[in-house]
From TrEMBL:
PANTHER family: DUF962 DOMAIN-CONTAINING PROTEIN, TRANSMEMBRANE PROTEIN. Keywords: Membrane, Transmembrane, Transmembrane helix. It comes from Pseudoalteromonas aurantia. The chain crosses the membrane at residues 29-47, 53-72. This is DUF962 domain-containing protein.
């Protein structure tokens, strides 16, 4: 379960690497599910004015994503070494999925 994470000079360079770490469709599906749960948690928190739902956002978001890496990709999330880039890349990948832009790496 190892992967080589090099130094990246830009977010675009990182994103190319990020996509290679998310090739398995079930891993991506779990990422999309987690991101959707984050959005839902935030919306419910706003409507109910309860901060408890905000606590669910990172738990569901990262929980589903990390489960995908553990069960399907068999690699370690880049979150631990590149937290900001990984956070941004996850939302770019999610947006591209929502807009049906193909993000599968070759």
């Amino acid at each position: 379960m190892t992967n080589k994470i090099d130094s990246f000079h830009s977010f675009n360079d990182f994103y190319v690497f990020y996509l290679t770490q998310h090739n398995h469709p079930k891993c991506r599906a779990l990422h999309y599910l987690g991101s959707s749960c984050v959005i839902l948690s935030i919306v419910v928190s706003l409507f109910t004015q309860s901060l408890w739902y905000l606590l669910l956002a990172p738990v569901t978001g990262y929980g589903f994503a990390w489960l995908g890496h553990l069960l399907f990709e068999k690699n370690h999330p880049a979150t631990f070494k590149y937290p900001l880039y990984s956070f941004l890349a996850d939302w770019v990948m999610y947006f591209q999925w929502l807009t049906r832009k193909n993000t599968y790496s070759k």
